[in-house]
Amino acid sequence: MTSSGLLLDIPAPTALAGPSDIFTRRESNVRSYCRSFPAVFATSRGATMWDEDGRAYIDFFAGAGTVNYGHNEPRMVQAVVEYLTGGGIVHSLDMHTVAKRAFLEEFERTVLEPRGMAHRVQCPGPTGTNAVEAALKLARKVTGRRTVIAFSNGYHGMTLGALAVTANPQARAGAGVPLPHVRVAPYEGNHGMATDEALEALSQQLRLAEQEDGGAAAIILECIQGEGGVNAASPVWLRGVAERARAHGALLIVDDIQAGCGRSGTFFSFEPAGIEPDIILLSKAIGGVGMPMALVLHRPEHDCWQPGEHNGTFRGFNLAFVAATAALRHFWRDDTLARSVATNGAIVREALLDMVQAHPGCALSVRGRGLMQGLRCEDPALAARIGRAAWDRGLVIERSGREDEVVKLMPPLVISDDELRRGLAILAEAVHAAIH
Length: 436
Ligand code: PMP
Fold this sequence. Notes:
Elements: H1 22-26, H2 33-36, E1 41-45, E2 48-51, E3 56-59, H3 62-65, H4 74-85, H5 98-112, E4 120-122, H6 128-143, E5 147-151, H7 160-164, H8 169-173, E6 182-185, H9 195-213, E7 216-221, E8 224-225, E9 231-232, H10 235-247, E10 251-255, E11 279-282, E12 295-298, H11 318-331, H12 336-358, E13 364-369, E14 372-377, H13 380-392, E15 395-396, E16 398-400, E17 406-409, H14 417-435
Parallel strand pairs: 3-15, 5-6, 5-7, 7-10, 10-11
Antiparallel strand pairs: 1-2, 2-3, 4-12, 8-9, 11-12, 13-14, 14-17, 16-17
Bound molecules: 4'-deoxy-4'-aminopyridoxal-5'-phosphate.
4'-deoxy-4'-aminopyridoxal-5'-phosphate (PMP) binds near residues 127, 132, 222 and 257.
C-alpha cells in the first residue's frame, strides 16, 4: 500500500450497483454518508483511502474529525496489534486494566497537568452522544436544576438528551417525543448577530430560566460548530459566555467532540479564549486510530456520581485506551503537531480565499480555524454541486450548516504537504466546475 497516489489520474468512481447490492437490499434506510460517497472502501493510510477496486481518494473528512492522526497510523496500529497478540484484555467493563492505567497516566501527564486542570476523567459509553448525556445528567445533579441553555445551530448527538440540545429541526423531529427543559440562545454570528447582541440574548435566556424554572443547570456549547456550519466563535464571546455561566450558577459544558484533540490548533478548542469549562467532552479523535471512545472531564468538586449511576457495558474499550495512549505519546508530548496544524491551517485559508477571489459574484466566504475550515456558499445548491464534483475527482469532503451550505474541510491533522495541496487543487477545480 502506498500513499503516493495517482490521484489526478484515477477514473471517476461509479455509483454502487443497483438494488441487488447487499447494502441497498439489507441495510436500513437510515444509512447516510454512504449516499454522498458511494464506494466500498477497503484500505486506508494517512489521508488517503482506497476502495475495493484500488481507487484512491484524498480524505478531507477524516471521519468527521475522528482520524486526526491519519488512517492506520503505524505506531498506533502496532501498539494495538502488540496488545492483542500479547493477550491483553479487550473487554473489562470499567474494571482496572493496565491499558486504562497507562492511558490515564499519559492523559494526566500530557494533557491535564500542563494545563493545570484538576478535572476528573469519566469514561461513558464510547460515543459522543453518550458523553453529552452524562454531562447533562451530571450538571442537573450538581445544580439541582433542569433547564439547559443550548445554542442555535448546535449539534450534540442523536440520543434524546443530546437531541434536546441539538438545533437541527429534522434531527429533532426524529425524537417522536417532546424535548423539554432546554432554552436556545443565538450563537455568535448567527443571523448576523454581533458579539454583544448575542451575549445579551444569552443573558435574557438565563434570566428567563431563573424566572420560570429555578435557573439553568448548564450552558452547552461548541467553540467551533461542526455540523452547524463551521462557525468559529471569537474568544471575546466565549469569555462572555463563561462569565455569564458563572454569574448565574450554571455549569459550562464545552462539547469538544469534533473540535477537540488538536483540530482547532490547540488540544482543546477553548484554550485560546483562556476559559476554564466545568465539563469538557471528548470523543472521535481521542480514540487514536478511530477506536470508539469518549470522555467526560469534570471538576472534582462536581464528582457527585454514585458508583454506577451512569453505567454501560462499553465504558472503557481497552484497544481504544491503547491507541489513545500511543496518540498522546507520539503527538502531544511536544508542540510539533500543533505547529503543523497552524501551518496547514494557513495553507487551507489561503487556498479558500483564492477560490473566493476567483469567483466574485458567487457569494462565497471562508470560515473556521485550524484544520476545521469551511467554504460557505450563499446558495446551498452550489455547495452540493461542489461536493459532488469533488467526489467525482477523488476527494472525500462533507457539507454542513443548516442547509448544508458549507463545504467543510477537515483533513487528518497529519496530512502530508503533497496530499493537502492535491486535495486543495481538486477542490478548486470542483468549485470551478460547479460554477461553470
Ligand atoms: N457533539 C459534537 C460536537 C459532534 O460533532 C458529534 C458528532 N458529529 C456529537 C456530539 C455526537 O457524537 P456521536 O456521533 O459519536 O454520538
